[in-house]
């Protein structure tokens, strides 16, 4: 199969060369590209809690078409169903059933939503009930075997054993392309389950509206009330073949139905509306007949979906779309060409790189129309609008990575954030936003960091003053998450707002980022205000015990306090031990405050070397023993900079040792290759950076912390046409220590790589050794 | 008060003359206008089942801002609450409570919906419960007295006794303007009840989304699932004064609320969303302080509502808007200037004329954007989009009246219907449509009649072939209401589709109308097809019993049959006795078929002279003894042409006698002045025509049937600048018989007035007498 892909790509280039002058430059360039999609295994992270999905999508695509292997209700008898969490991305590798293929997914998140528009092909007597995954033939779901399943970027296929149907999926940016190969049957069906949701519960579906426009075209929308409170997704669904009949079943308790009672609405009636609807379309099929479906999404209207459909896939050539999409992936993956010791490492690396390009996603129609936070339809002027901003996670390494390999998209994302601010009734930048909604998840206002990082790296042309104003506004919304008290008291008081230490630390760093923007904008007042605020981390440090600690609004420390417990101790997804080290803008000062370099180094050793007690693990569903080294929890982002902090002590070699250890033990090319949620690409971005030998400990600064590269060598092809070459000397799995680093031929000694040294290309050479320098 | 209005109008004209050149021509013209709004009593029809509303609106305005005097649940313990029906328009004159003022209403319909965005001003301890109308102070509702209530076109006011608040309402086309005069209070409130609906029941509210944009501007929308299945109304609500605080209460059973739990959403939090929400805004008020609210609607978006707000009322001058709107009304009312014997007759006449201009309503934003039937946003190109088409009622006389006094608007309505067809997944013209939904109410496809009438009268520039195609498509939707069988068998079989005789008769007439369009379009094939179909009325006439009668699909007559019962006998809102006379396109043939002129005249006598048995009345909520003459039921439209049918017999004088009798007994200037639902203006249009002395028995023909005028004389000011003068000689309440009719000086003897004789103006003179000719 892999060889076939190479042939296809060559063929495709030839075809497109002839037909598409607009894309010519890109494709000509790509002729020299390597086939790197072969090293991507979309199944990595689908086992345990990686929360990735194996389905088909373009880079940053709006449609992410992927199988659902179960349908879990979020509540059973009014109680939260703990199995919900496993299905954040809809797919669990250990399952042996497929319930269908839906068009929207999060990649790696630790909370969920989406799963819109589930399609399932079946044969035999129509069964509209999904059934129980544990009971074969109990519903429309099908058994499948992994040996009959295959996934690569932009393509997924599986044999549905219950129906003898081969399902193949690909996608363009806004259109899912399904290809189902049926057996001979007079009872072939395509089910469109409009009830199915990820994180599903009664009343999640607010409204569904479906029109059967003709014998092969369906349009409509669904509104849900989930993590995104007011979420609307519109669609246009085109069949390659007219159905012979169709219908739907409504599962609502309808008290009043106007005058629709004069029709038999359930069969062959082209209008369906309600809260909970399953539709079906019936076909006769001959042996091996393929029924194809193009399923376009829009966030503005059904008309928008039709526009997207017509613009992106005006044909029925499944392979053409698949190859176009795979070409896009290859173009993106070729932005970093690496050589590694082992194929496994290469697969781990490229899958991580792949996982950094599954969100944020494009969130506008082909003509630039999109639904804004105010639920009005806006037009993106001068940018492409994006959504899914898991910012508490992704500001750390994902957006900094984008500033190197996706600066144009990151600029679009920055502008999308400013647009969000402009549409926000709070005048706030995104916190955790998706699908024209703010879901308020996690702490901090980290859009400001993303913007500041892009401004620092000079990868954005956002209006500086407008961006600064948006950041200021965001940081001053007094009713949000303790900000009012934070401004007044210099810290978030735990008795007023929980996770108060995490909030104080994140706000302080965010404030430093705002100060950096103000500096660029030459706005001294704002600079001073926010630089002052950025010192607030000091106010939650309890010198007496040597830990960051929750403080109360009367200024006293909270009495009950356990620096290791991750719940109710002033931290979120962390504790005083690890999250308490989060002062990325003043690391030296923090270390001094905490007793100096050696004491701090010892503290880091303590984190990595002290076995965590079981009682602390059981409480947190994100953490398994696999994702832990001592008390270091790689699955949670507040730790991500910690292994690099040794650089600020007298023991940088410990950074080198630890990051290699983490890469080796916390990542692999197996389905269980992620030790925790990928968190919208942050975990993978950590890996990509670390594998290349450096990491953005302080986003919005120009410094990266040096680690220990996993790769043998790498070539980073920048969008400005320049290239960064990363070479290693004496690289091996044993030689994890960095003896010397040369940047553009000059040795550096402070373990900091400056952005300016590489932004227009350059060469970094790591001299590796088996013992510390 | 009436005199004051005159002064205002003069003042207003002077003001606008100075400020507004665009409207200058209209206003200059209007200087010579009489003040006719003084003769309109918006309370006519608010008692019993007229289903009119007394609130403020412009002619055909999108906002119809009117008090709700009760809040009835549509179902109590799962059973239909019979009091629901009384509140089709929200207001019942016998009530003594006001629950608030909402922005959308039907006028005169026999089924309901709307009542969007109820606003209630209160003082004292905030109470968000509406309370029980029978228990004073049991909720936010207030007692009121009719002596403290006043209504005229474009203006309504009432004292709210419980709060000592004077409420005044006016409106522009798309904006409701509230003016509340408060007492001194530190506890003044404006409640925005987003749960309240006309025809309300659990789950009617699908979704509500509200943003508090700043301290005085609210935007949002509500989606309901009612008679209009997928109805969205957007709003922008601007206060004249900042509120001091605000909040909302959500009445949903929320199983899952994302991460909003980190806020106190209920107080001063600017985003509200859910199914059932009541919001409130708190103020301090000094004695007699006025708080004004401009409340704009849109059917496209909150942005659209803001656009409408800014365009239509860019100021806070309540009187200015009131006077502008009253000027519009005066302009419209002056289209027919009548003199009558009594002031009461003039009030009855002008209120009827007023009631013909409350629907259809404008249904687009100021920039022409509107929500189509497909739920996409469309742009009206070359027309203004209208909604609320109660066509089974209004094709009879309302649209024919529009062809005389509102040809431009009627042309817009025709084009709105064609746009509806183009957006319809069924490719059908409206049946009974409102707010971007088809509610499928009543029988027939009467858009075709409206279109054919406009084409016959040459008042539309709709594309003839496009219109014809839309009519053909509509008449051939085989799954709609027996059309398939009707086409195949020549009649609708009762065993397949109830009300089969009504359907057959209405379809036959509609088909004749389509044939008339085909004739104009010179499409012989379509003409022949539909002319043939128009003969289908013959197929449901049972010669054996001399009645139209339900036939079964095997061709036999249904055995059980009662020609007087109005339920389950093949008719709807009628019976064989009256609805069985509905062949308006072939009256002579029908009469011949039924035994000739004298037999037919006797049949008409029988209808009017035979007391209906009580058992037939009790079944029908539309009919009261007041609306009945013998077996003639004026409250139901199938009878509307019946008094005029004597013209086709040897006893036209009986038409004259009957129509005067009906005008005198079924209409008055009291609150109970309508004997049944006004039916979106059809009952009133019947009156306007009849009062002028003629009636469109056969819409889409050029003939009107002569009746007996009520007016002394009338001047109809046509939009083309020409005038029709209607004079009477010897008019009196006794002289109901028409001795002679002269049209443009020539006597006519066939009791038919030809449209061509008056379309460019003319003079009709009725010579009246106390005895038949």
From TrEMBL, chains A, B:
Quaternary structure, from the entry: Monomer.
Domain (Glycosyl hydrolase family 92 N-terminal) ranges: 39-298
Protein name: Alpha-1,2-mannosidase, putative
Native source species: Lutibacter maritimus
Assigned GO CC terms: cytosol
Cofactor dependency: Ca(2+)
Pfam families membership: Glyco_hydro_92, Glyco_hydro_92N
Organism classification: Bacteria, Pseudomonadati, Bacteroidota, Flavobacteriia, Flavobacteriales
GO molecular function annotation: carbohydrate binding; peptide-N4-(N-acetyl-beta-glucosaminyl)asparagine amidase activity
Keyword annotations: Calcium
Keyword set includes Calcium: yes
A biological-process GO annotation: carbohydrate metabolic process
Record-linked Gene3D superfamilies: 2.70.98.10, alpha-1,2-mannosidase, alpha-1,2-mannosidases domains, GH92 mannosidase domain
All copies of domain Glycosyl hydrolase family, residue ranges: 305-769
Keyword Calcium in annotation: yes
């Amino acid at each position: 199969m892999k060889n076939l892909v190479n042939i296809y790509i060559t063929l495709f280039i030839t075809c497109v060369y002839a037909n598409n002058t607009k894309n010519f430059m890109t494709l000509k360039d790509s002729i020299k590209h390597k086939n790197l999609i072969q090293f991507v295994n979309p199944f990595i992270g689908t086992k345990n809690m990686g929360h990735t999905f194996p389905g088909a999508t373009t880079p940053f695509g709006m449609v992410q078409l992927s199988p659902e292997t179960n349908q879990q209700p979020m509540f059973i008898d009014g109680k939260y169903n703990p199995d919900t969490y496993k299905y954040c991305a809809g797919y669990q590798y250990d399952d042996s059933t497929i319930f269908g293929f839906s068009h929207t997914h999060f990649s790696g998140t630790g909370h969920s939503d989406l799963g819109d528009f589930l399609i399932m092909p079946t044969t035999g007597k129509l069964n509209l009930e999904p059934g129980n995954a544990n009971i074969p033939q109990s519903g429309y779901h099908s058994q499948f075997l992994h040996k009959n399943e295959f996934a690569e970027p932009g393509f997924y296929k599986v044999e549905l054993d219950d129906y003898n149907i081969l399902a193949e999926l690909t996608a363009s940016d806004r259109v899912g392309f399904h290809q189902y190969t049926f057996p001979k049957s007079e009872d072939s069906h395509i089910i469109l389950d409009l009830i199915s949701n990820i994180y599903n519960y009664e009343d999640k579906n607010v409204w569904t509206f479906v029109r059967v426009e003709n014998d092969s075209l369906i349009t409509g929308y669904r509104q849900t009330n989930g993590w995104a409170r007011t979420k609307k997704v519109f669609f246009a669904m085109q069949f390659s073949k007219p159905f012979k009949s169709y219908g739907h079943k409504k599962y609502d308790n309808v008290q009043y139905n106007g005058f629709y009672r004069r029709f038999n609405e359930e069969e062959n009636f082209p209008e369906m509306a309600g809260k909970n609807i399953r539709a079906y379309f019936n076909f006769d099929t001959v042996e091996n007949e393929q029924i194809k479906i193009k399923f376009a999404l829009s966030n503005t209207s059904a008309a928008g979906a039709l526009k997207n459909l017509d613009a992106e896939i005006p044909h029925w050539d499944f392979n053409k779309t698949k190859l176009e999409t795979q070409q896009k992936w290859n173009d993106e993956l070729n932005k970093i060409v690496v050589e590694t010791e082992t194929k496994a490492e290469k697969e781990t690396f490229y899958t991580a790189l792949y996982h950094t390009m599954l969100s944020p996603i494009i969130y506008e129609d082909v003509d630039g129309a999109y639904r804004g936070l105010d639920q009005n339809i806006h037009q993106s002027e001068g940018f492409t609008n994006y959504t899914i901003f898991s910012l508490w996670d992704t500001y750390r390494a994902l957006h900094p990575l984008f500033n190197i390999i996706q600066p144009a998209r990151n600029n679009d994302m920055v502008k999308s954030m400013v647009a969000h601010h402009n549409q926000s009734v709070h005048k706030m930048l995104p916190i955790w936003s998706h699908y024209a909604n703010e879901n308020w998840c996690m702490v901090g206002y980290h859009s400001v960091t993303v913007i500041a990082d892009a401004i620092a790296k000079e990868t954005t042309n956002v209006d500086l003053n407008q961006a600064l104003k948006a950041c200021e506004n965001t940081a001053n919304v007094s009713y949000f998450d303790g900000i009012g008290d934070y401004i007044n008291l210099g810290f978030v008081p735990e008795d007023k707002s929980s996770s108060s230490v995490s909030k104080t630390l994140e706000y302080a760093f965010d404030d430093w980022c705002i100060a950096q923007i103000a500096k660029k904008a030459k706005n001294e007042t704002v600079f001073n205000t926010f630089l002052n605020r950025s010192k607030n981390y000091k106010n939650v440090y309890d010198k007496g015990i040597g830990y960051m600690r929750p403080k109360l609004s009367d200024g006293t420390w909270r009495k009950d306090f356990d620096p290791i417990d991750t719940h109710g101790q002033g931290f979120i997804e962390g504790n005083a031990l690890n999250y308490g080290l989060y002062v990325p803008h003043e690391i030296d000062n923090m270390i001094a405050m905490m007793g100096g370099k050696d004491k701090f180094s010892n503290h880091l050793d303590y984190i990595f070397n002290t076995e965590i007690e079981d009682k602390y693990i059981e409480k947190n569903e994100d953490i398994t023993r696999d994702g832990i080294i001592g008390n270091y929890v790689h699955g949670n982002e507040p730790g991500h900079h910690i292994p690099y902090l040794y650089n600020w002590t007298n023991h940088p070699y410990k950074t080198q040792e630890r990051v290699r250890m983490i890469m080796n033990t916390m990542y692999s090319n197996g389905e269980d290759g992620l030790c925790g949620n990928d968190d919208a690409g942050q975990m993978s971005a950590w890996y990509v950076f670390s594998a290349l030998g450096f990491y953005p400990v302080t986003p919005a600064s120009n410094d990266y912390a040096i680690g220990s590269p996993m790769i043998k060598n790498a070539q980073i092809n920048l969008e400005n046409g320049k290239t960064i070459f990363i070479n290693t000397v004496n690289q091996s799995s044993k030689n994890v220590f960095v003896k010397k680093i040369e940047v553009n031929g000059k040795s550096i000694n402070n373990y900091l790589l400056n952005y300016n040294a590489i932004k227009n290309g350059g060469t970094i050479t790591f001299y590796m050794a088996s013992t510390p320098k």
